[in-house]
Design goal:
Layout (H helix, E strand, L loop, with lengths): L12 H23 L5 H51 L1
Length: 92
């Protein structure tokens, strides 16, 4: 019998691979696309810088949202445990 706990399960390897492939392909295509633009070097530099900052801020935002979600799950689990503890005292 396999023990499955929804709090312990993570993303499947296929999903993780898909995410990494999508990230690498999109970043590569953006960099190559900017490189072949028929514009001055300073415009390309601006677009590269914008790509870098947009990517970094997206990663930071997703981490912050994930951390907040995990914090809320932990708080809810603690509240449920306290409620169960109080109820067991009054029932027993």
């Amino acid at each position: 019998m396999t023990y499955t706990n929804p709090d312990v399960l993570g993303d499947s390897p296929a999903w993780t691979t898909f995410i990494w492939i999508s990230f690498v392909v999109s970043m590569t295509l953006m960099i190559v696309g900017v490189y072949y633009l028929p514009v001055n070097w300073w415009i390309k530099g601006y677009l590269y810088m914008g790509t870098l900052f947009l990517t970094a801020s997206t990663l930071t935002l997703s981490k912050a949202l994930r951390d907040r979600h995990e914090h809320e799950r932990l708080v809810n689990r603690l509240k449920n445990a306290r409620t169960e503890q109080v109820l067991s005292k009054y029932e027993g």
